[in-house]
Amino acid sequence: MGEYSGAFVAFDVAKTKHAVAVAESGRAGDIRFVGEIENAPTAVARTIKKLAARYGRLHVCYEAGPTGYGLYRQIRELGHDCMVIAPALIPQRPGERVKTNRRDSLTLARLHRAGELTGVWVPDAKHEAIRDLVRAREAVGDDLRRKRQQLLSFLLRHGRLYTTGRDHWTQAHRRWLARQSFEHPGQQIVFQEGIDAIDDAARRLRRVDEQLASIVPSWSMAPVVEAYQAMRGASFLVAVTFAAEIGDVGRFDTPRQLMAFLGLVPAERSTGNTVRRTGLTLAGNRRARRVLIEAAWTYRFPARVSEALRVRLEGLPKTVRDIAWKAQIRLCARYRRLSAAGKKLPVIVAAIAREIAAFLWAIGREVVPT
């Protein structure tokens, strides 16, 4: 790490107050606790200007969390460096048991000066807005699944099993539900309230899907989202979720870095000549990892271009289409090979998802955001 002038400032952020510490430049520089300030832009600006008057240029850091990126953007606008820290990658001292805001801020300032902190990628305001919408859509979808499962569990407790069809929530299943009735008024109310809750959640999901479909085309990442959909299994929702959570894949020098960021590489515990690899690290962005796992299941079938995929391929650059077809040939064969070797399904799907990430990395580097 190169030498910096100025000082290293750490915020231990919280809902109402931030703890602030500063480490002076140089290995022998003092590290001191500044104090606690209100979580308000005026208080932050006052503190930053006071420290800048004494130390010059500041190099600020704070942990990523529920307070978002407002502090980052404010500090950058004030003309100072700022890093948002990945909490899971902060070095921990063995046996450390005392944790206070003061100690945390002092530790962050010391580690920041030593160059031992890892920053996260910070989206711009528009990208963050799309990400918020995508995450809201995920929450609505989860809510709908929970309500459906609650109703099915209620029916199962009372011996009502749908056996005339294979899938739930089809038109045939809805007709079967309409024929159900219960003798006790209390149970009939529970059943009807469950049906109404499901209908309300389904309408909310449709509204959010419509809003997402109307807003994404005006987003700078829209060409990338369109290109991602050349991949088999990469529906619009999968593509927009991956783009919103990962951003520009150009910030990863190699696909291996992207795989590691997504937690799709095995953990390793090595001692001496013994190398032991365990399960996936499952670090990084769980939402992007989840949609890749969902996409991976589609490769259990032979490679082909379906009508839905053919429509998505129209108008895309030939290099993108070639990458997607190469991916399909390779991944379908790999799925069959791993299955024939007796690998467990979760292992197969994780392996396919890992390679999907590599192909999306290649596609993302072929298309420039607007």
Task: Put the structure in a nutshell.
The protein is α/β, with parallel strands linked by helices. Helices cover 53% and strands 12% of the residues.
Q: Which characteristics define this entry?
A:
five-stranded mixed beta sheet, 370 residues, globular, 13 helices, two-stranded antiparallel sheet, alpha/beta
Topology, pairings included?
Elements: E1 7-12, E2 17-24, E3 31-38, H1 41-55, E4 58-63, H2 70-77, E5 81-85, H3 101-114, H4 125-157, H5 171-178, H6 185-215, H7 222-228, H8 236-246, H9 255-261, E6 266-271, E7 274-280, H10 286-296, H11 307-313, H12 318-340, H13 345-364
Parallel strand pairs: 1-4, 4-5
Antiparallel strand pairs: 1-2, 2-3, 6-7
Percent of residues in helices comes to: 40-55%
Beta fraction: 5-15%
- Which parts are unreliable, with pLDDT below 50 for 5 consecutive residues or more? none
* pLDDT averaged residue by residue: 92
Q: How widely separated are the two ends?
A: 34 Å
Determine the structural class based on helices, strands and strand pairing.
alpha/beta
Following the backbone from N to C, one meets helices and strands in this order, namely EEEHEHEHHHHHHHEEHHHH
Task: Report the C-alpha radius of gyration, rounded.
Answer: 26 Å
Strand order of the main beta sheet, please?
Answer: 3-2-1-4-5
Broad shape:
globular
Discrete helix count:
13
What is the number of beta strands? 7
Largest sheet: 5 strands, mixed
